[in-house]
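[Archive record]
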Amino acid sequence: FDGFAMSRYAGKGILERLSKNDRQCIHEALKKVDMVDYKKHHFGSLSGGQRQRVLIARALALQPEILLLDEPATGLDTVAQDSFYHLLSHLRDSKSLTIIIVSHDIGSVSLVVDKIACLNKRIHFHGSPSSCFSSQEKLQKTFGTNIQFLLHDQNCETCLRKK
C-alpha cells in the first residue's frame, strides 16, 4: 500500500502519517484505474500495464487538473496499450482531466486524443488527428524522413497503404 501512497506523502514531515482523507484519495485513485485488488501487491510483481495503472493512480491521488505523460505506453504489448489508452480516455471524459501525451507513436495516440501537435524543433502541425494524417508533408517535416501510412480502423478487413 505504501508504494501506491507515495504521492500523498509529499509535503508531510518524516514521522507524519497518512490521514483518513489521504487514504480515501488513494483508494479512489486505485478504484478509478481498476487496481484496488492489487493494493497489497509489490510493484515489481505487477505486469507492465498494471504498473502503468499504478503510476496513473499515484498521480490521480494528488487530484491534478493536468497529467503530463512521456511515452506512457512504452514497453506495453498491443492489448495492454489499448487498455491503457482506453483508461486515459475514460479519465479524460469522466474527470474533465487534461492529459498531455508525448509520444512518437502518433498512430496509437491518435485514436484517443482530441488534438495532435507535431513538433520537431518547431510546431509542424496542430489540429485534429484525422487532419494530421491528411498532410504527409507536415509529418515528413516532423519526423525528418519519408513515411508510409497504413490506414485502417477496427472494422477494416483490408488495409490501404498510402505513400
